[in-house]
Structure formats: structure tokens, C-alpha cells
# Entry
Amino acid sequence: MTADVARAVQPRALAPLPGDPVEVRALADVLARQGEGVAALGRTVGGLGDPGLVGWSSPAGSAFARRVGAVPAVLAAVANRYGVAASALRGLADGLAMAQAEVAWAQRVLAEEWGPFLAAGDRMALAEASPDPTERAAAVVHRAEMVAHGERVEEARRRHQLAWDAFEVADRRCATTLHALLDDGLADSAVYDALTGVSRAGGAVAAVAGTLSLAPPLKVLAPVASAAEGVRLAADGTVLAAYGDGDATDLLLRGGAALAGGAAPLLKSGARATNAEAVRAATTRAERRAAALTTRDRLAAGARSRLADLRGARGGALGGVGGGSSRAQTARATATTAPAVNRVRPRGMAQTRAWLAEQAQVRATAWARRRWLDDLDVVLRTDGSSLPMHVTSVAVERTGADLGRAASVREHVTSGDEDRRRHAAAERHR
Amino acid sequence: MDNRWAVSGRPPSLPGMRIEVAGDELVALGESMGHVAADLAWCADSAASRAWALGHGRSRGALAGVLGDFEHQRLLLGRRLDELGASLRRAGAVYVEVEQDAASLFAGAGGDAP
# Structure
């Protein structure tokens, strides 16, 4: 191979072997310590519960032995996992260290020999092309030099490849040992993995879609967030019911918030539904009563209105005052009666304080009007609408918001506790 | 006469008379039980954060499976150990209290001895 061909086909550097055997050994030590601790605890608990071994010979000891059940066996299995994993990792660390040493040697030799190899090749080519017979005779010497350097380069490449192969063997052996540990009966079932996976995915989608839906152009994502949260709740509920894992209070709070969040707009739309014209057209009291909307009718009307809202329909799906038209009335009322905001910039501290107070009051009034009073006004002014259902919708909405807040606070507290426990565990292992 | 005593040269042990309970050790055992679930979770997290050190081979994923793929058993074990630990802590505290009361009784009796 000439130097030009070598330049073209062979890279000048050999790939490094990633990984850190020192860190792997440190990890193995952590696992080994953890395994030994768990094994010791398992032996103690097992011995304590076994009158033949330690002899807690009393009614309390017998009751403890009955309650211990399979705990020592599970602790022994966990300890075995950690112990065997630690041993496998130590083997991998040794293999990695040797392979990395070989790779480092190969890289150093290549770096040292590659330049002289190319230079000798260039000299040989020049000598062979020279018209001077003495120069041409020297080509043999240059060739010998090039071959010597080339052999060192080839040796480096060969040992580099062998080192990678050796690491792959060590890695495969370690992975096989680790995979074999999964057959110890501790592994999660496929159904459990699927449910927890669905829960995590649902939570992630709900969080992203919920945040994005706060921006007006992306409001269409709100149903996606609701659906994802529903999927997450269903998965979490199944895990809790079937396996006992999870927090029932948190699930109830989140479920209540989601339910109330979905029911409040439906009730609000249902409260505005009316068929006043049909009622007015009725001649007898019995006919009027028969024509009046029942709670079921209102809920159905509310559901239709919500569907229409979700589809972006502007028209009301209700007879008479529907979701869309009532909102139109609400919007008009807000526009005509919204309190004016003083936008003149204040001067001085006293003016600023007064301006801030005024801003807060005006904005709070506008918010309350938009949120409560306008809706109430529409219901009161619409003949045949249901004030009790409207009040119920407000109460449900309030309850949903409170439940959501409570769930957030609880999640915050729980995650804080979890962080403290992890921190304490890290301190114990330091 | 008890023949066994005659053979061994020692009096027979009386059932219910051997009382040897270290209440504080029961409390300590209960405490250590409460730490196991958190320690296992920390260990899995610690291993996940150091997994890069294993290189790009198959062992990395396998280790994640070994330390992470027993979430249900870990939670279940944590709950069982928490229950047992709480019971042991209470039992240990009761034993310690009873032992102190009993010791104080005998300490009083010793003061009256000639």
C-alpha cells in the first residue's frame, strides 16, 4: 500500500473505548454494600421470626413470625440481585480497564508511527521516480522503513480491534449475568409495566398539552390534555386497585378535580338551556310541566353544547339560548359594562400606591364580573333557564379548582418528603 | 425427682422463665427496616446516573432492568417493612418501658436488704 492510498483509506485515529472502570467499580461497591445490608436485614428478620433460630419465644414473637411472611425471602432475592450485579460489574470493570489500556496503547502507537510511515512512503515514491540511480537504489531502504512503520501501524490496529472484541465479550458476559437475574420472580409483570408506562406517558402528554392550551391559539389542545389526564387516572386507578401501589388520596383529589373540571362547563351550559317558547305555547299547566326541561334534558343539552364548543361551533346546539349565543350575550355585557382602566402613568410614590390599588380593584371587579356576574346575569335574564343548576355549576367549578389545588399541594409535599428520604439515603451511603 | 436433671447435673429449664429481650435493638431494627425502600430507590437512581461508565454495551440496559424492573416488589416490600418496623418500634419501646419499671421495683427492694 502506498502512502497516498493509505491516506485515502485509513483513518488517522483509532476510536476510543468509552466508559470508566473506576466509576464502575465504585458502583459495584455501592451495590455490594446495599446487597450485604439487605441480606443481613433479611437474616435478622427471618431469624427473629423463626423461634428455632433466635427464640423470641412469646405470643408477641409468634405474632411477629406470622406477620413476617415472605419478607425474608424477598429481601434475600433483592440481596442476591445486588450482590450478583456487583460481581458482574466488577468483571466488566476489569475487562473494560484492560481493553481501554490496549486501546490507549494502540492509539499512542498509531500516533507515533503513522507520520513516519507516510513520510517513508513519500520518500520511497520520490526515490523510485528519481532519474538518479543512487536515489533509486535508496528506495529499497525507504521501503523497508515504510514496511517497519506499517507493521507497527497494523499491529496497533489489530490490537485495537482485539481490545474492542475483548470488551464486547466482557460486556456480553456481564449483560447475560444481569439478564439472568430478571428470572428471580421479583421482576414486574408486563401488565404492570404497561400500566405504569401508560400512566407516565399520559401524565407527560397532559402536562405539555395543558400548558400549551393556556395560549389562546392552542386552546384546542385542552381536550387532549383532559383525555390524557383521564388515561393517566384510569391507569393509576387500575394499578392501585390491582396491585395496591399508588396514593389513593392523590388519585381521589386528581380524579375529583378532573371530574369537576369536565362537569362544570356541562352544567353551566345545561343551566342556560331553555325552551321557553314551547312552555309559553302550552295551554294547560300539565302541558307546561311536560314541556319544561328536565335535569336529564339539561344535561343532554349541556353535553351537546360542550361537543359543539369542542368542535369550535359558534352556533348554539340548544333550543333558545345555547352555549354559543349565551356567551355572545356575556361578551356583549362585559364589553359594555366593563369598568374603565386608568392607563395614565402615575407620578410619585403616593400616586403609584393609589394607582396600584385602583388597578387591583378594577381588575378584580372585571375578573369577578367576567367569571361570575355576567353568567349569573344571563341566567337570570333568560326565561326558562335553571338558576339551581347554574349555582351547582359554580359550586362544582369551585370545588374542582380547590381539589386541583389540593392535589398540587399534596404532590408538592409528597415530592418534598421523597426528596428528603432520598437525601437521607444518600447520606447513609456516604 | 427429675431423671434428666440427674443425668445432666443441671436443673431443667422452666418454660416461660427465660426472659431476654433487647428492646432498644428491636427499636433499631424497626428503624433500619424503614430505610430499605428509600435505600433501594436511591441505589437505582445512583446507578442510573453512573450508567454512562459502563460504556455503550448491552450491560447498561441490563443493569437498568436489574435495579429498576421490580418497582412493584420494591413498593410492596417497602410497605411491609414499614408496617413491621413500626410494630417493632412500638414493641421495643414497650419492652424497654416494662424493663425499666421492673428494674426500678428490684432496685427499691435491694435498698431494704440487710
